[in-house]
Amino acid sequence: MRRWIATLVAILACACAAIAAENPDCAVASHLVSADYPLPRVAAAVHQAHQLDILVVGAGSSTLMGPGGNDLAYPARLQAILAKRLPDVKVKVATNVKPRRSAAEMEEAFEKILMEEKPKLVIWQSGTVDAITGVDPEEYKTTLDDGVEALRDGGADVVLMNMQYSPRTESMIAIHAYVDMMRLVSQQRQVPLLDRFAIMKHWSEAGTFDLNAATRKVEMASRIHDCVAQLLADLIRDGAKLSREQAKPNQ
Amino acid sequence: MLYDPTIANPNRESPSSMAAAATSQRDLRLDLFRGIALWLIFLDHIPSNIVSWLTIRNFGFSDAAEIFIFISGYTAAFVYGRAMQQRGVIVASARILKRAWQIYVAHMFLFVIYMAEIAYVSSTFENPLYHEEMGIFDFLKQPDVTLIQALLLKFKPANMDVLPLYIVLLLGFPPVVWLLLRQPTLALASSALLYALSWHFGWNLPAYPSGSWWFNPFAWQLLFVLGGWCALGGADRIGPFIRSPYVLALAIAYLLFALFIAMSWQFSALAAYIPNWLSEIMYPIDKINLDVLRIAHFLALAAVTVRFVPATWPGLESRWLRPAILCGQHSLEIFCVGIFLSFAGHFVFNEVSEAVYMQVLVSALGIALMCAIAALMQWYKTIEGRSPGARSKPPDADLAGGEA
User: Is B229 inside any structural domain?
Assistant: First the structure.
């Protein structure tokens, strides 16, 4: 919400990205994706090692249930999009996704994950389960702080991803306190944030997607995941670019 | 602070009518601002409501909850303090506890409405995109645990945290009133000490399924007791201080500072002007534990309000403000109506339309309904007061419109 009146500069800068976007629907929200903070390890992996290992750590909203759901969900789509955009880089997007996991449960697993997977970038999605079970928002923030620190110490860049905007359950799940906490961690620790909540809210208001629709079909859900993957790919590209720009004057 | 006893002109009292004397002491500003706070709470509780951009939480640190709790503490101390002086400690305490029970019943009524809403949505809404969010319906799958935890005030659905706070505050209120009548400064100091201790030791009441209360009673009691302290003579003592031009200037400066910070939440360009060290100290502005920044903001707001809206202000008698005053006089009923209407309003957004005109319409209609129901409550009070079988009530019961 805080960024919904983004600066004109950001809109113009992202207009190029919008034109290049694979799915024009997604571009509606591209001004909400701005790389404010660099991703130095991603930049090094792409430009020096030519190999980018990404790990998505998340809960139920990082996957889609049902047959073929994993292939339609945003981690698989991200791999496809990045592979296409970076033909000379070996891109691998692994997942550590389990439904109904709180941020604290994920954070506990980080040490093991870092040892086994050695990712250069961790995309950490959390919040919905914490909001449903009413975890103390302060505690949630501490978990995010500790988690970001652990991942960075373990040699990985971090991108945070917050909750989905869900109009039907908005009056039942007190989600805003957690959205605010994640934005605060993003600012204080300089972690790029994919503000999925603001992005989806924007899609809902602009009429891009009807998030109120009651359906069993996975069609709209997969389009949204595809868009989330595209915006993530934009954010990763811009973050890597930013760290290269920052590195230049020092060379 | 909001009540100025010098306004109650003794010459206007007719010696034969105690009730008339009591009524002339009623400070309509309390009802007015509590009524407005109830409207703001209603608007804020409808998610994604464009009209809620107008509410005070977007222009500073504190919001309607502070106003509501402070004024509730004020009126409770005013009514029950008087009762304690006239009828004794036992009677006054019994009436406070009865009030807490009424609020508990009202809270459970709202809880049933909430469960009905999620039960309906769980049976009609399905979308593979939201299977994680559907976890909220798990509470329906184990009614034994959910209902018991709700009865224990541990399971509190979203936006239903104010009444449980109010219940706990009233449960602890009898000794506070007793002390406020005898040693007001000590009472206020103890309250401040409890606030400080709760911050230091992280005291809060537990919640279900995890975490703790969204309005920490150990912290929020400070505003409630402060309201009571002002009602029982404190306002007189700090009156000259509040009216000093330096305090006014300080209050206005702080409100402007808070306004700037609040604007930086909407317009990220402004955030660049806030130095890092300031953000480090300031954030997060803790609502759960009633951050000092929030208390200060509320106090500044109150000081400015008292200065520019005196109790003798003729506007208080105008019919334009009558609806807000009526809402404030029936605060428990209107609070519940507001929470129900915010559920209903959000339901309309989802089922009918989320268009901006609809949001404005639902907001306006909701406030109109709150006023209509307050008028109905007032009418009930009149007919019940007049009915021949009715026992005469002690004058102080009517004082707060039967509300404390």
Answer: no
Q: How many domains is chain B partitioned into structurally?
A: 1
Reported ipTM: 0.86
Domain range spanning residue A155? 35-250
Residue A29 lies in a domain: no
- Distance in Å, alpha carbon of A37 to nearest chain B alpha carbon: 15
In a domain, B307, yes or no: no
Is residue B213 within 8 A of residue B57, CB to CB? The reply is no
- Tell me which residue in B128, B132, B286 faces A99 most closely, judged by beta carbons: B132
Over pLDDT 90: what percentage of chain B?
79
A101 → chain B, closest CA residue: B132
Distance CA A11, CA A28 (A): 11
What pLDDT sits at residue A14?
43
Q: Choose from B129, B286, B339 for mutation: most chain A CBs within 10 A.
A: B129
Test mutation, B63, B132, B136, B160, chain A, max A CBs within 10 A: B132
Amino acid at A207: G
Under an 8 A CB cutoff, do A171 and B46 touch? yes
Q: Give the minimum alpha-carbon distance from B153 to chain A in angstroms, rounded to a whole number.
A: 14
What pTM does this model have?
0.88
**Which residue is associated with the tokens 């110490």?**
A153
> What is residue B387's predicted lDDT score, i.e. its pLDDT?
57
What is the band of B15 on the pLDDT scale with cuts at 50, 70, 90? very low
- A251 at B interface, C-beta within 8 A: no
User: Within its chain, how far is the Cα of B285 from the centroid?
Assistant: 19
Cβ of residue A34 closer than 8 Å to a chain B Cβ: no
Residue A165 DSSP label: P
Contact: B349, A5; criterion CB under 8 Å: no
Contact A173 B118 (CB under 8 A): no
With residue B200 as reference, give the H or E element that holds it.
helix B184-201
Q: In terms of residue numbers, what domain contains B398? A: 25-54+312-404
- Mean per-residue pLDDT for A178-185? 94
Residue A223's pLDDT is 94
The enclosing domain of A166 has a CATH number of 3.40.50.1110
Minimal Cα–Cα distance from A94 to chain B, Å?
A: 21
What integer pLDDT is reported at residue A19 of this predicted model? 39
d(CA B64, CA B69): 9
Numbers of helices and strands, H then E, in chain B: 19, 0
Does the residue A95 lie in any domain? Answer: yes
Strand order in the sheet with A193-194: A90-97, A51-58, A121-125, A157-161, A193-194
pLDDT in tens, A122-171: 999 999 999 999 999 999 999 999 999 999 999 999 999 999 999 999 98
